[in-house]
Design brief:
- By secondary structure, the chain is an alpha/beta fold.
- It has helices spanning 13-17, 36-39, 42-47, 49-65, 70-81, 96-100, 158-167, 186-192, 219-231; strands at residues 7-11, 30-31, 34-35, 86-90, 105-107, 110-117, 123-125, 144-148, 170-174, 196-201, 213-216.
- It has a 6-stranded parallel β-sheet with strand order 5-4-1-9-10-11, sandwiched between helices. Strands 7-6-8 form a 3-stranded antiparallel β-sheet. The chain has a two-stranded antiparallel ribbon with strand order 2-3.
- The longest helix is centred in the first third of the chain and has 17 residues, at 49-65.
- The radius of gyration is 18 Å and the shape is globular.
- It binds zinc ion (ZN).
- Zinc ion (ZN) binds next to loops.
- Residues 117, 119-120, 122, 136, 138-139, 141 line the site of zinc ion (ZN).
Length: 232
């Protein structure tokens, strides 16, 4: 596409679903049969830390067992080849973008394979269990929690995201309903920066009206085709 140098890509549940990872479903408020307020809120963690640690221990195992799909691979190829600015902002907590080879990835909702120490604020790559209260490798306190942005908490690195949107020539939303703020506002930010906007999604979303173009279908088909267009 002509005149495009800076690209911001937002990815959501739809791209990980094709790798077998299930996420929170807004329609019934459940995530793997748990009420979202029980497993994805600071209040839920205070009430029953063991339930929450068990839940994310299981998510961590699922992430490790999952494999990137052709949509992740195509985005990694674009990241490697694209000489302009590019930022993949993901709502997903898995590391499938990185394992496919992408480098310019920002996890706005945290990461399953990261633990956050509430005593010293350090973050550590974590692939095992947090259930038994292991000591923080930095300070030794047993104060590690999943490094996940829960409901009522501020998504990570919003300043960087908005700065990238302000410079964007193209904003692409992949596999996300566009229904949840602040991500739902990204397309509006991109448009006010005069970026072109493209939605790739399984079905038309609540945010579809904001996009210049919407393409409907599975990410594993739409994303490789779009990347092919971009790289010519
Ligand atoms: Zn610590």
């Amino acid at each position: 596409m002509d005149g495009i140098r800076n690209i911001v890509i937002l990815t959501g549940a739809g791209i990980s679903a094709e790798s077998g990872l299930r996420t929170f479903r807004a329609d019934d408020g459940l995530w793997e049969d748990h009420r979202v307020e029980d497993v994805a809120s600071p209040q839920g963690f205070r009430r029953d830390p063991e339930l929450v640690q068990r839940f994310y221990d299981a998510r961590r195992e699922n992430v490790i067992a999952a494999q990137p799909n052709p949509a992740h691979a195509a985005l990694a190829r674009l990241d490697e080849a694209w000489e302009g600015e590019l930022l993949i902002v993901t709502q997903n907590i898995d590391d499938l973008h990185e394992r496919a080879g992408a480098r310019r990835v920002l996890h706005m909702h945290g990461e399953a394979l990261s633990a956050w120490c509430l005593a010293c604020d350090a973050r550590h790559r974590w692939t095992g269990t947090l259930l038994e209260g292991p000591p923080c490798p930095a300070c030794g306190e047993a104060a590690l929690r999943p490094d996940i942005v829960w409901f009522g908490e501020m998504p990570y690195r919003m300043d960087e995201i908005f700065a990238a949107l302000a410079r964007a020539d193209l904003f692409v939303s992949i596999g996300t309903s566009g229904a949840v703020y602040p991500a739902a506002g990204f397309v509006q930010q991109a448009k006010s920066a005069r970026a072109r906007t493209l939605e790739l999604n399984l079905e038309r979303s609540q945010g579809s009206a904001w996009f210049d173009e919407t393409r409907l279908g599975p990410a594993s088909e739409l994303v490789p085709a779009w990347v092919e267009e971009m790289l010519g």
